[in-house]
Amino acid sequence: TKLHDNIHIVHIFIEKHFFCIINIFSESYLISILVLPLIKLPLCFQIKIKEMRHITVIGGGTMGNGIAQVMATFGYEVTLCDISADALEKAIKTISGSLDRMIKKEIISETDKSTILARLSTNTDLPSALKNADLAIEAATENEAVKINIFKTMDQHASDNCILATNTSSISLS
Predict the structure, then answer these.
(1) The predicted structure's pLDDT at residue 33
(2) Are 74 and 7 in contact, with CB atoms under 8 Å apart?
(3) Distance (Å) of CA 145 to CA 84, 118, 126, 148, 171
(4) What distance in Å separates the CA atoms of residue 96 and residue 101, rounded to the nearest whole number?
(5) Cβ distance 100 to 124 under 8 Å?
(6) What residues have CB less than 8 Å from 2, skipping those under 6 apart?
(7) Residue-wise over 144-172: b if at least 16 C-beta within 10 A, else e?
(8) Helical H runs in 54-143?
(9) Could you read off the pLDDT of 13-40 as tens digits, one per residue?
(10) CB 55: neighbour CB atoms within 10 A?
(11) How far lies 170's CA from each of 12, 54, 163, in Å?
């Protein structure tokens, strides 16, 4: 399903389980987000993805700040959450530097950069960061125990309509 020139959704059914992959494209990124078949997943049909307003990205590292930047670039309000305020400060600096490179390449303007950065907020408290999220994307360190703990918190504190997603490169999802 094509929602926008740069956003596509792929629906997959495997052994009676529904999976959704959201592909987001930009000049610098291709991000694929797998939405897991969790208890909350069937409720995601109540949200039209085009109507999403707020996205929470958990993890301020390379992938987390990249996902946050792309989402903010496409007009979403984004809360970037990490347990470390220093990591969040570094993430915002990284995003700002990336946007500066886009300005130099004349992909965006200074005004665009200011608008994108204004869409980003940071938070070190995961439950409060999830409060208004329509989509929560876990992009924390590749540590299974950490990711499981984050998902437990996401499940407890995100709204029933929030789509829970993960970004992992080395941990099996099965």
Answers:
(1) 52
(2) yes
(3) 18, 33, 16, 5, 11
(4) 9
(5) no
(6) 8
(7) eeebeebbebbeebbeeebbbbbbeeeee
(8) 62-73, 85-104, 110-118, 126-129
(9) 443 444 455 555 555 544 555 544 443 4
(10) 26
(11) 21, 27, 22
Which residues is 25 bridged to in the sheet? 30
Place of tokens 């992992």: 168
pTM of the complete model: 0.74
Q: Where are the alpha helices (DSSP H) in the chain?
A: 62-73, 85-104, 110-118, 126-129, 144-157
Tell me the one-letter amino acid at 143: N
From CA 168, how far away is CA 16, in angstroms rounded? Answer: 23
Q: Which residue has the tokens 């499940």?
A: 155
Q: At residue 160, what are phi and psi to the nearest 5 degrees?
A: -65, -25
pLDDT, one tens digit per residue, over 140-172 is: 988 888 988 998 999 899 988 888 888 776 666
- The residues, any chain, with a CB within 8 Å of residue 87's CB and separated by 6 or more, are 60, 61
In the structure encoding, which two tokens stand for residue 15, read together?
A: 């052994």
Residue with tokens 């929470």: 56
